[in-house]
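A.,

Following up on our hallway conversation. Structure tokens first:
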């Protein structure tokens, strides 16, 4: 009785939500509400209208899926009704016929001249005649399969209609549950939505069917209408912009190059010019202090691999380039992340830029870098920095946004200043997330090692690039393992005992 009473109380809401066929949906929804979960029912209106029904009800994600499925069925039916199924075989037959005509001419000339190649030409002509007959037979057989396409399309369409009908009430009931808590969810039967769905359905089915059944009927469907001069014109505009920026900002770009080169030289003095036993000892001690003895032993073995296989100097050069890029990324990224976390409007501007930086293929970064900075190590540092900086900014914002507001309110209640709140509350609580961002920045920067070698950045990337150029698989694998060991050492040291 209580279940029936609850269902009756929902009847006005069901009537308001469905708009049409209220008595039908009262019964369907009542059964589903009493026992939540999928219940097999058939909605014949959905079966008849297909995707249009889902669109009229505001179920647009399902509309798209059903539209694509039914389009496949209509394509098969259209190909069977008016498609040129033997077109490819006929094109092959025409090509064979033209070759065969050429062979006939050659045979005629050979007979007149008494050439010794006459027999071979005749054999080739006989083979072409057989191939021509096979192609013509294949074209005839393909033309005769139209009924099969129609039958297959009708069977598939019937199956899709059954699926559409079986899922309709279940999906509408789930939308009803969302609508009860959020009245912005689409409800009712909308004539405007139905017209949009019907137009989209008709356009998709008709255009797709024509393209597959008669590819030559409407040429614009197979090739996007464009003009090759447009790309040249836009490219010239971009090139002119690069030239203007390079000329106007020469002092700025020279300053960036000088700073990058100076920073990189100092790091290389520490890693490359210092005695290798000292460098190895310091790295192993860092691994021990950060992640424990097991990571320290692994670090020692990895460094021995680099040294014994003559990768030491290039590995330290790679780490120096990586260190310069990661240092700049971290020094700039963490303060920028703090600023964005406290000012959502600023982050709304910065976030699309970060999305662009992370979506851009790594090779594309090299184009503006070479245009403004030139080639060599400074350009490699800049490209690596641009590629690796987004994670530390994002993770800093995420970590600060995840700090419990109750903790911040308690600190403020005890008289915490904004500076104290940042340094003693926010950053300590967000430290783990921020360090994950630092870790990702370092690893992404290391992933640019091979790419940066294309613009003259020295290091292990050169060995991998040479191995690719000369197909030296063995040397390439050894250099790749060297890069891997550098990545693992840095990852374990930065991650600390959490990964040891």
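Then the amino acids I'd put at each of the 500 positions:
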């Amino acid at each position: 009785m209580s279940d029936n009473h609850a269902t009756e109380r929902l009847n006005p809401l069901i009537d308001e939500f469905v708009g049409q066929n209220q008595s039908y949906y009262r019964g369907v929804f009542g059964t589903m509400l009493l026992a939540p979960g999928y219940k097999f029912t058939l909605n014949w209106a959905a079966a008849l209208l297909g995707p249009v029904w889902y669109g009229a009800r505001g179920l647009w994600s399902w509309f798209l899926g059903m539209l694509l499925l039914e389009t496949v069925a209509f394509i098969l039916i259209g190909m069977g009704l008016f498609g040129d199924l033997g077109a490819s075989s006929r094109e092959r037959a025409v090509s064979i016929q033209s070759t065969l005509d050429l062979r006939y001419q050659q045979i005629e000339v050979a007979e007149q001249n008494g050439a010794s190649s006459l027999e071979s030409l005749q054999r080739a002509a006989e083979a072409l005649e057989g191939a021509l007959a096979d192609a013509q037979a294949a074209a005839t057989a393909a033309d005769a399969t139209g009924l099969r396409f129609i039958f297959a399309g009708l069977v598939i369409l019937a199956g899709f209609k059954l699926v559409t009908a079986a899922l309709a009430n279940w999906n509408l009931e789930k939308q009803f549950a969302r609508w009860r808590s959020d009245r912005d969810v689409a409800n009712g039967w909308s004539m405007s939505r139905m017209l949009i769905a019907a137009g989209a359905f008709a356009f998709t089915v008709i255009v797709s069917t024509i393209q597959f059944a008669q590819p030559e009927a409407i040429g614009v469907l197979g090739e996007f209408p464009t003009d090759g001069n447009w790309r040249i014109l836009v490219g010239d505009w971009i090139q002119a912009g690069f030239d203007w920026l390079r000329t106007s900002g020469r002092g700025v770009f020279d300053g960036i190059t000088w700073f990058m080169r100076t920073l990189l030289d100092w790091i290389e003095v520490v890693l490359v010019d210092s005695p290798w036993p000292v460098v190895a000892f310091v790295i192993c001690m860092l691994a021990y202090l950060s992640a424990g003895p097991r990571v320290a032993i692994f670090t020692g073995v990895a460094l021995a691999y680099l040294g014994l296989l003559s990768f030491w100097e290039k590995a330290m050069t790679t780490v120096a380039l990586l260190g310069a890029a990661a240092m700049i990324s971290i020094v700039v990224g963490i303060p920028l992340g703090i600023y964005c976390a406290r000012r959502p409007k600023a982050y709304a501007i910065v976030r699309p830029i970060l999305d662009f930086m992370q979506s851009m293929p790594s090779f594309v970064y090299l184009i503006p870098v070479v245009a403004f900075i030139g080639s060599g190590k400074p350009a490699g540092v800049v490209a690596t920095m641009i590629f690796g900086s987004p994670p530390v900014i994002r993770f800093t914002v995420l970590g600060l946004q995840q700090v419990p507001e109750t903790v911040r309110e308690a600190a403020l209640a005890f008289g915490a200043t904004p500076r104290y709140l940042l340094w003693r509350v926010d950053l300590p609580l967000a430290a783990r997330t921020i360090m994950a961002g630092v870790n990702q920045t370092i690893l992404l920067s290391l992933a640019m090692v091979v790419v940066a070698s294309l613009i003259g950045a020295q290091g292990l990337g050169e060995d991998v690039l040479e191995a690719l150029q000369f197909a030296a698989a063995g040397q390439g694998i050894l250099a790749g393992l060297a890069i891997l060991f550098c990545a693992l050492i840095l990852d374990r040291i930065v991650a600390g005992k959490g990964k040891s």
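DSSP finds 24 helices and no strands in the chain. Curious whether your intuition agrees with the design.

B.
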